[in-house]
# Entry
Amino acid sequence: MFTLPLLAVLLQALSGAPLDPLQAPAGTKAIVFLFTSTDCPISNRYAPEVRRIAEAFGPKGVVFRLVYPNPSEDAKAIREHMAAYSYTGVAEAVRDPQLRLVKLAGATVTPEAAIYAGGRIVYRGRIDDRYVDLGRERPAPTQRDLFDALTAIVAGKPVPHATTQAVGCFISDFAR
Amino acid sequence: MTATLGRPPTGRPKGLHYDCRSAGLQACLFVLLIAGSARAQSVTFAKDVAPLLADRCGMCHHPGGSAPFSLLTYADAKRRAAQIAAVTANRFMPPWKADPADGPFIGQHPLSAAEISTLRHWVEAGAPEGESAGESVGSLSRQSQQSRWTEGWQLGKPDLVITLPQPYTLPAEGTDAFHIFVLPIPVETARFVRGLEFRPGNPKVVHHANIRIDTTPASRRLDEADPGPGYDGLIARSAIYPDGHFLGWTPGQVAPLLPDDLAWRLETHTDLVVELHMQPSGKIEQVSPSIGLYFGDRAPTRTPAMLRLGRQDIDIPAGDSHYTVTDAYTLPVDVEVEAVQPHAHYRARDVRGDATLPDGSTKRLIDIADWDFRWQHVYRFVTPMHLPKGTRLSMRYTYDNSEANARNPQRPPARARWGQRSAEEMGDLWLQVMPRDEHDLDLLSRDFRPKVAAEDLKGYESEIEKHPTDAALHDDAALLDLELGRKDQAIAHFKASLALKPESAVAHYNLGTALTVARRLDEAAGAYREALRIDPAYANAHNNLGNVLLAQRQFDAAIREFQEVVRLQPDSVPARSNLAAAYAAAGRQPPR
# Structure
């Protein structure tokens, strides 16, 4: 885990303007980065759960940012994606075509979550354990890792598991 | 291999003959690493990867295909390269669950270990395109590639296309969803069907389709009772595979057109019953599949038989990780096995079928070591498997009803009994077999029928235990009891059904027929009279009552009943001949 505060990484806002994703309004307790892509089936199937978590923790000082690392997904495609999966208004979106935030957080797949709090990444991994492997999934999750981590953070407690293994579409493919 | 090492020759042995013991571990690892990446560098999309993707993945992963994305161009493949390597390495893709040694089956496209390595090496080398690939696949031009995987119907233009009157709306989330659609087949005369092609409409969410036909109104009534298109529930008992032909769909599978002499007969006023297995996508989806039918000109001269091994008394204790279901049947005639289809739900792990020939030798029908409910293929043999009379067909399925099975629909694990609902369990092995001739088909059908009826009955008994107030279950169980000669049990089920709907004329009539078969004639007559009290115009009840009275030598009363049948059904030939027979039995002349 990171022990030093992270340096600013400049990403792209949907407007194209540079944006420091680690900056957030005063009073923010944590920033959740949700690495996603417009056409990853597993990522998209999680949209309702991501919305639920964002709506639950938004009022408690948690900012949600969807991170789109695929360079071929432009602002127009991202806006359409956010509208189709009802993310608009629930989460902000940033582009990470250089995979800067991906590398900083250590994300490998979409969907994968990273929580930035207290100047460091305190959680990185799956949203929950519904997907065991590609082609093997549970009918319902037995561990809601992202939800549990945020619950701990807003209660001022340590995160139960700092990292978990996410299952989904490989971000490394976007870099080619 | 030695030439790819990338190191100047030394006095030492080269390549894989490199002596690790003398060089020390670190140097040895270095050499092996170089060797690996050097091999990877020789793999390119154009030369090695494109032909594999086109041949093994293209049937679904083409533009407009049943997969959610295409993999035919370099641009398509490059942006999913690591994913391709991963899903092929764990054999999630291509979705071929059977042991590659089985079959060979039509549409069998598993990758060999060497081919999987090729894909991995390509990714390790950075997914290079290689020479002259351009926007096309391998050496094929883009145009010829597209004509290989047409965007439209794979079997050509259908003679009849059936679609939903309105799309079905699938919710954004939830577990696997099942919905049954009942679609009238608009044919004016009976037709001979050579093929059926299913197009999912929304391949992102439609995972497979279980297709039957129903010549009765039963499925339609279930649909009408449920608002919106289709219905949630179980496939009606009257929705069947036609004339021993499988009709399902899984991605990548299109059953080839049948030869004319093997077509199945489609009667007018038949409904197509399509159960869709869908997976929510994260947003609300519209689902609008279509079904194409292909007709032939001639009536079939051959008819296959559908055999079903399996158990309907499955009862898996909670937590049991090695529950076994076995069944067997010995063939009374020679057959050719055309196709097999295993069926089980989420707890099944190893699914296996075998044939033991009279000489003691065995042939594997199917073996799926890691059963996945999501991929319910019909496995059609390229060359039908010949099995002589006396061959023992057997199945052995194992189930994991513990927490260790991630797919277990119950958590904590719960007792699982037989049932069609996906939270219940099943264990069937369907076999489509072709007997030598009509005589053998008849022999086989008559020999096999009691076995499957007895098994169905167990399923009904189990359902009745779960739903004791469902009169229709009692009725169906009673009919099976009658078929199996279990008269007392049939009477008991019809009595149970009657107790649930005491003012139903049909329920009294049904009880009367079972009592008649049991030769309990006084009680039978009483039941028919009750039916007629409720519905005086019930012609069949008059007829059966007439027969009972005739057997009791109450000729005048019998003749009155048959006269009533004739009055109700003046055009019925059997009604008139029954009346004539009653007069004859009474030794009288019918009035002029």
Remarks:
- Confidence is low (pLDDT under 50) at residues 1-38, 133-144 of chain B.
- Residues 2-41 of chain B form one domain.
